[in-house]
Write a structure and sequence with these properties.
- With 114 residues, the protein is mainly beta.
- The strands form 2 sheets. The protein has a 6-stranded mixed sheet with strand order 2-10-9-4-5-6, with no helix packed on it. It has a 4-stranded antiparallel sheet with strand order 1-3-8-7, with no helix packed on it.
- The radius of gyration is 13 Å and the shape is globular.
């Protein structure tokens, strides 16, 4: 059964940090380019960062230098280290494939207070 489970969100003050996790199962995680996405209230879901199976990374301009994506293929898990958080980072964060999308998980809420 294909499943993506996000965790690690929470309420944090501006300037703080959070580490999100994405536990994947039911597909060949280690072979897939994966991405972190977010959806803020009233906005479309957007790609935040993605990582190849080999660990090459790419970031949206809005998070470059503050967010860091990584993966542990042995654990079928992907991470997003978020530093220097800003109120505009407030959103529900999701993980999924970079290309063909799997059913979306429940996401994890990140709220950054000013």
């Amino acid at each position: 059964q294909v499943q993506l489970v996000e965790s690690g969100g929470g309420l944090v003050q501006a300037g703080g940090s959070l580490r999100l996790s994405c536990a994947a199962s039911g597909f060949a995680f280690s072979l897939k380019r994966m991405g972190w996405y977010r959806q803020a209230p009233g906005k479309q879901r957007e790609l935040v960062a993605h990582i190849t199976s080999g660990g090459d990374t790419n970031y949206a301009d809005s998070v470059k230098g503050r967010f860091f994506i990584s993966r542990d293929n042995a654990k079928n898990t992907m991470y997003l280290q978020m530093n220097s958080l800003k109120p505009e980072d407030t959103a529900v964060y999701y993980c999924n494939l970079f290309y063909d999308k799997l059913p979306w998980g429940q996401g994890t809420q990140v709220t950054v207070s000013s």
